[in-house]
């Protein structure tokens, strides 16, 4: 019972009692006491509210702007404020499409139709890749790229742009420097100093250096960002490169003159004028191809993953790669050590046929071939093998056997052994 009912008669008799009975209005004060205020404030609509419960529905009719009530019933839209209150803002902002979203959840899918009506939603498709839900951006957002589009990174042109050309630029630049130094010192073997060291430098630049310089990350972050298999690959290339470079440099310094293999070449008229294009840059091309197994997995990791064959024998390929590398590395090391011992003890009488030299004529080249063969197997076991990397060990073997290395040694030894009957006979056997 309100006070004005109990004591109303005591207050000068001018305050009529409130209506008796049950209130059927909203229960708001303007419904219960509205007729007390000059009689100009109509009561709110009586009955149950069927709107949204928002203030503009409950009290909307009290405001002069006459904002219509929100649509009655359950909301079937996104639940965003534009859907709930959209028709309150000048009536020009259409609600979002009702129903569940079938897109990716990206903003351009949810709100695309709000921007002038000209931005169609992106094509819907499953974001799952052949690798399952990896969480990688290409898996999550892959459906936003045109299905007919193949970016540079997934094509031969992409590998040429991201890997081959940068590698060749690096090796060509280093070869130009080596050419200048070699011409100045009149020693062609300057290119040999660059062979293993240049390949190792390219591997480190592809894996770490390019990220430090181009992306501005620290060396520690660039290194920690590598997968275990990538670190193992980089360690193997480094071990091979450091050993071979130290061997070439030590022999060159000890000899004090150019390698005998190049003596005949330097005597050719105009040799140095054409050597850059006939000797140094061709080796830069060979280095670029040989370096593919340890540049592509760093420069084009996404393409390598997509192109790599799926295997359940990853550990087996890893073990095979380690076996090949270890065998090749041991063979190279033993061959060089045994050759030095033979030269000291036998004063270079005859041809060395002891130890690993009794297996093949050039065990150090065989070891080198095994080392390079191990890299693709490591990539297969790691799931980052791109078929183009198989060209690496093939090019290395062809170069050693038919272009440089073995071929140059054979030709040089045949000329030098002409005046040594013992060596000439053993060499021909």
UniProtKB/TrEMBL annotation:
GO terms for cellular component: membrane
Region annotation (Disordered) ranges: 1-135
Biased amino acid composition, Low complexity: 124-135
Compositional bias of kind Basic and acidic residues: 29-38, 56-65
Pfam families linked to this entry: DUF1295
PANTHER family tied to this protein: 3-OXO-5-ALPHA-STEROID 4-DEHYDROGENASE, 3-OXO-5-ALPHA-STEROID 4-DEHYDROGENASE (DUF1295)
Protein name, per record: Steroid 5-alpha reductase C-terminal domain-containing protein
Organism of provenance: Fusarium torreyae
Lineage of producing organism: Eukaryota, Fungi, Dikarya, Ascomycota, Pezizomycotina
């Amino acid at each position: 019972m309100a006070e004005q009912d109990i004591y109303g008669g005591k207050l000068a008799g001018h305050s009529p009692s409130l209506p008796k009975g049950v209130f059927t209005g909203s229960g708001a004060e303007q419904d219960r006491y509205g007729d007390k205020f000059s009689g100009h404030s109509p009561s709110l609509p009586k009955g149950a509210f069927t709107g949204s419960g928002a203030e503009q529905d409950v009290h909307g009719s009290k405001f002069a702007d006459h904002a219509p009530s929100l649509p009655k019933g359950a909301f079937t839209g996104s639940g965003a404020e534009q859907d709930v209150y959209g028709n309150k803002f000048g009536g020009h902002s259409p609600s979002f499409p009702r129903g569940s979203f079938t897109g990716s959840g990206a903003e351009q899918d949810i709100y695309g139709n709000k921007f002038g009506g000209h931005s169609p939603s992106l094509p819907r498709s499953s974001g799952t890749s052949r690798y399952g839900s990896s969480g990688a951006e290409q898996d999550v957002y892959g459906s936003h790229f045109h299905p007919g589009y193949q970016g540079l990174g997934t094509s031969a042109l992409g590998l040429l742009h991201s890997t081959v050309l940068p590698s060749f630029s690096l090796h060509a630049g280093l070869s130009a420097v080596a050419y200048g130094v070699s011409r100045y010192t009149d020693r062609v073997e300057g290119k040999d100093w660059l062979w293993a060291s240049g390949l190792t430098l390219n591997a480190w630049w592809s894996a770490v250096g390019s990220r430090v310089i181009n992306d501005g990350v620290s060396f520690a972050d660039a290194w920690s960002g590598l997968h275990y298999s990538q670190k193992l690959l980089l360690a193997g290339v480094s071990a091979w490169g450091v050993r071979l470079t130290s061997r070439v440099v030590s022999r060159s310094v000890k000899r004090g003159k150019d390698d005998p293999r190049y003596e005949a070449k330097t005597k050719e008229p105009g040799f140095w004028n054409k050597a850059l294009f006939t000797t140094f840059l061709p080796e830069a091309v060979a280095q670029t191809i040989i370096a593919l197994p340890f540049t592509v997995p760093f420069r084009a990791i996404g393409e390598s993953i997509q192109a790599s064959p799926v295997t359940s024998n990853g550990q087996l390929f890893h073990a095979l790669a380690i076996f090949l590398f270890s065998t090749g590395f041991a063979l190279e090391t033993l061959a060089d050590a045994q050759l030095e011992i033979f030269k000291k003890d036998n004063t270079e009488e005859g041809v060395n046929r002891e130890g690993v030299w009794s297996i093949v004529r050039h065990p150090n080249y065989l070891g080198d071939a095994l080392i390079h063969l191990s890299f693709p197997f490591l990539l297969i076991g790691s799931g980052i093998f791109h078929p183009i990397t198989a060209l690496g060990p093939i090019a290395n073997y062809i170069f050693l056997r038919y272009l440089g290395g073995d071929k140059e040694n054979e030709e040089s030894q045949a000329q030098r052994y002409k005046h040594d009957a013992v060596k000439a006979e053993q060499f021909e056997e």
